[in-house]
Amino acid sequence: MAAILQIRDLKKTYDGGFQALKGVTLDIEEGEILALLGPNGAGKTTLISTICGITVPTSGSASVSGHDILRDFRQARMEIGLVPQEINLEPFSIVEDNLHFSRGLFGKPRDPAVVEKVLKQLSLWDKRRSRVHELSGGMKRRVLIGKALAHEPRVLFLDEPTAGVDVALRKDMWETVDQLKADGVTIILTTHYIEEAEAMADRVAVIRKGEILMVEPKAELMRRLGRKELRIDLREPLAAVPEALGAYDLALAADGLALTYSYDTQAERTGIAGLMRALSDNGIVLKDIQTRQSSLEDIFVDLVAEEEGEDA
User: What Gene3D superfamilies does this protein's entry cite (predicted)?
Assistant: First the structure.
């Protein structure tokens, strides 16, 4: 697929010398969902704000559908929908008026059919004549998404879109995101609910201290960095891991009734067969065995921790 968003060596230094972006280079392909993950202060919101024209970059370039964000600002911005973290709606405004107004800001003609479609997608049609202050926090978040979609953008930025949203509304939102992707909309997502990124994203980019650490297809990342854990429940507690099992990567539970063995699923040998023999040879009786695959959250935490360690 062709890159609809191209970012080249983008830097942003604020007054006072703080460098929020340190040469970010990234291609985002048309029609994909990219999860942009990083700890607080990593530069996620600054990157989004820069591409959307809210913040001016210090150097570097970015283009959306071939339109440079500085030279062709208006055309580039027309291609983008932005759902910010903050709920910044006029409390006494009518729900559907927000969408009509947002559409007008981008020079699009009034089109009740488009607004109706977006409101129905977001399960807001029954609330279309309600005032914003009458809505729950989750419904207000939906109105923000509706405003971002009203001018029919090709690229949608979702900056923590489900913050403060209950489980049922969150599920509805991700169904909407899935439909938007099916309609060809490119979506860049930041979220603290990493399980959502794991479920939705095609690719994952990790940013830390203004730098992109890696960009990789989600499935490939999980295959390459993922690992499995074998949990072994014991019939009798152990005071410590026997010295004879020291060759294995074993962790003993606090109550002594379980051992956890971490292993690489891509290795030629997992070592499980040898471990089972060693347990039997040492008179350790098993009660149950279960495995667990690393989640994207595990991988993310480990990756950031590893980078933090290198900086120390």
Answer: P-loop containing nucleotide triphosphate hydrolases
Is 168 part of any domain? yes
Q: For residue 270, give the CATH number of its domain.
A: 3.30.70.100
Dihedral sign computed on CA atoms, order 93, 98, 102, 108: negative
Q: How does residue 234 score in pLDDT terms, banded at 50, 70 and 90? A: very high
What is the C-alpha separation between 276 and 289, in angstroms, rounded? 11
Residue 305 within any structural domain of the chain: no
**Residues 183 and 237 both lie in one domain:** no
For residue 141, with 0-12 CB atoms within 10 Å meaning exposed, 13-18 middle and 19 or more buried, which class applies? buried
Rounded to an integer, the average pLDDT of 209-215 is: 90
What's the structural domain count of the chain? 2
Tokens standing for residue 294: 């690393």
Instruction: Tell me the two tokens of residue 179.
Output: 């439909």
Residue of 245, 254, 199 lying closest to 222 (CA atoms): 199
CA distances from 84 to 44, 59, 259 (A): 12, 24, 44
Instruction: Give the range of the structural domain holding residue 117, as residue numbers without chain letter.
Output: 3-223
Residue 310 has pLDDT above 60, yes or no: no
Give domain status of residue 301, yes or no.
no
* Whether this model's pTM surpasses 0.70: yes
φ, ψ (nearest 5 deg) of residue 259: -115, 140
pLDDT value at residue 218 = 83
The CA-based angle 205-209-210, given to 5 degrees, is 65
Give me Rg for the CA atoms of the chain: 24
* Helix or strand holding residue 211 (H, E): strand 211-217
Q: How far apart are CA 190 and CA 48, in angstroms?
A: 10
* Confidence at 312, pLDDT banded by 50, 70, 90: very low
Whether residue 162 has pLDDT greater than 80? no
